[in-house]
Amino acid sequence: MVRLSVNVNKVATLRNSRGGSVPRLRDAVRTCVDVGAPGITVHPRADERHITRQDVYDVAELLAPRRGDVEFNVEGDPRDDFLRLVHEVKPHQVTLVPVKPGEITSEAGWPAETNLEDIVRDLKSDGMRVSLFVDPTPEAVAWAASAGGDRVELFTEPYARAAAAGVDAGRRSFERYAAAAERARALGLGVNAGHDLDLDNLVLFRQLPHLDEVSIGHALMSRALFVGLSTVVREYLEVLASTGE
């Protein structure tokens, strides 16, 4: 079954919009894992507009007793303070993503000319799996393999937009991702995916060949406002567990 990693950034966004500690990030993480989420994702940006450095320590501490069954994924750009942080915390997985100045959220995968080999090697030598955020192209996947990554995370915003435009457009986009996933497997890479996936477009995307994990935050947390966090995590787990279209 495809694993769900719940991105809890938006809980921190809401907390930071008012100041203080409410809603408590630890409570959100505990709720997710208590109903069966097998993974938690955080993205500590340099400006700490949602997840802070302290949040990463707090989540790592909370998940430590469940390290055998709940995976901790920390994503971010490979700036010096981020790398120091993950080497201290040692999550199961580090997802390296490019960051553009002024972006609201991730906009694209890594350019194929990016040199990350030394960073990837250093992270892996410290016991962390490394996933590289890429566009769904053969060139990007080949670059990730040459950089030494363990997995790719396919940037799925283009798929989500295509799926919203209609069934045929969604299927055409899906085939592009399927080809990228097949290429990744052929090169020895695992396959993750994330960005704008939701309960509707997952029905097709869960069939992606060799898909290991999806990271979902915005859509999940948005629905949780209306039905509750426990309920929506269960909904995503049920969708990922199903094999029908």
Structure description:
The protein is α/β, with parallel strands linked by helices and 245 residues long. It has a single domain (3-241), classed as TIM Barrel, CATH 3.20.20.70. The protein is 47% helix and 17% strand. The protein has helices spanning 9-18, 25-34, 53-63, 80-89, 117-125, 138-146, 157-165, 167-186, 202-205, 218-227, 229-241; strands at 3-7, 39-42, 71-76, 93-96, 129-134, 151-155, 190-194, 211-216. Strand 7 (190-194), helix 9 and strand 8 form a beta-alpha-beta unit. The longest helix is centred in the last third of the chain and has 20 residues, at 167-186. It is globular, with a radius of gyration of 17 Å.
Topology:
Layout: E1 3-7, H1 9-18, H2 25-34, E2 39-42, H3 53-63, E3 71-76, H4 80-89, E4 93-96, H5 117-125, E5 129-134, H6 138-146, E6 151-155, H7 157-165, H8 167-186, E7 190-194, H9 202-205, E8 211-216, H10 218-227, H11 229-241
Parallel strand pairs: 1-2, 1-8, 2-3, 3-4, 4-5, 5-6, 6-7, 7-8
Name given to the CATH architecture: Alpha-Beta Barrel
Percent of sequence in beta strands: 15-25%
Largest sheet: 8 strands, parallel, barrel
Query: Can you list the strand order of the major beta sheet?
Result: 1-2-3-4-5-6-7-8
CATH classification class? Alpha Beta
Report, as a whole number of angstroms, the end-to-end distance: 15 Å
CATH evolutionary superfamily: Aldolase class I
Query: What number of structural domains do the residues give?
Result: 1
Q: How many distinct helices?
A: 11
Pick out the low-confidence regions: none
Q: What order do the helices and strands follow?
A: EHHEHEHEHEHEHHEHEHH
Please provide the count of β strands.
Answer: 8
What is the CA-atom radius of gyration, in angstroms? 17 Å
C-alpha geometry: globular
The CATH topology corresponds to TIM Barrel
Instruction: Estimate the helix proportion, in percent.
Output: 40-55%
**Which class do the helix and strand fractions yield?**
alpha/beta
Mean pLDDT over the residues: 95
